[in-house]
Design a protein that fits this description.
Layout (H helix, E strand, L loop, with lengths): L2 H17 E7 L10 E5 L6 H9 L4 E6 L6 H9 L2 E4 L2 H8 L2 H14 L3 E5 L16 H12 L6 E9 L7 E7 L3 E2 L1 H4 L6 H17 L11 H13 L9 E2 L3 H15 L2 H20 L4 H5 L8 H33 L3 H30 L2 H35 L2 H20 L2
Parallel strand pairs: 1-7, 1-9, 2-5, 2-6, 3-4, 3-5
Antiparallel strand pairs: 6-7, 6-8
Amino acid sequence: MRLPYRIVRPLARIALKTYFSKIYLHGLEKIPADKPIILAANHPSAFLEPCILATTLPRPLHFMVRGDLFQKPIYRAMLMSLHMIPMYRLKDIGYKGLKHNFSSLDYSYDLLKKKEQILILAEGTTKHEKRLRPIQKGTARMALGAIEKYPDLDVQIVPIGVNYADILNYRSPVMLQIGDPIAIQDFANNADESIAQTIKVVTQKLKAQLEKLVIHIADKADEDLCEGLFMLYRNNVRTPNFPIQSTDKRPLEKEISIANKVNLLPADTKHSLAEKLQTYQAKLAKHNLVDEVIVQPNIYSKIGIVGIAMGYIPAMIGYLTNILPIYFGLYLAENKVKSITFYASIKASMALAAYLIYYPILILIAILSKSIFLIIFVAMIPFLGLFALQWYEYFVKWKQGRSFHLTAEQTIKELKAQRREILREFEGAR
């Protein structure tokens, strides 16, 4: 593990556990600990998937990225030190540049020989959507190429589904599920098939595995309906704030089952459900309510204002001392990113990069000041930032609960009835 990777990895882990409200990771035991591993994941964001997996999996992770980022020597050295491996595309570098892929593949085979883990984003391209796109042949090619170079290598392709609840916004959950390993030796030893046919078979096997691990909304027109149903079912379950990382597979399994059911519903049922959801959501908005508080109104209590008042000053200090790098990431995402696919990745990564500059400067200032008070205060800044985040989330929920208690009882009854009717119709639909 290279030094920059050792330094950045724990910091990225903290940043991601701040960005996401919950990280669900199930099936970790399915990754063989003593074999060369190619992790094959779907690719709904620009580069958050490698970051999440690098910080949640116990073993170091190497991953393939676009080769055009490596053209300047300084960038190449920096990216390689973070375990990134360049893969060049025709449209980025032309036919002559594709020859560089041979050295990248050889380097990857040697990593696999050492029983390292390599991540490939199996769809090949990235798009912000909740559906599995066509799986490219590159994952199978790499696995079979490694065995061609090292015939006794027991390469395993391990599929991973990465699913974001709402990647564009801070503090939403991400759900990852690891599938069953695919032992490539089982396919490589089939003398009756050509290499092209073997690649096709392995790719089909990988696709079938990923289909079980990824939320797949087949028709784009059904996205709003699915998201509305996801919201209702999520709010039926009270989720504890801690620990941030969980092995619970039920949230993802539920959303996969919802999407799969919607995919099969007749058009008139979808239309009816969509209309009822829109009516329900409009009524919630009219009364300044959210769905969560309809199911879980006990968030509010009159004495909660005491805790809010007591925590206000440290929360404001935490906010003011941490907002600058976070705002920098948000500013770049809002003003410089043209594709929604890159929005969350830029927001999170640039905020982290800014913090890695900002906080050491504060530490240096504190040390140079020789003030024990200032040194202690600077050391507390990250913890104050986390406190501010928790305080703000509690305050928002408290306000939502207060709105619920101030709403007319008849209105609440009507909303609960509308909610029950939507779930009853969906669960009874065929």
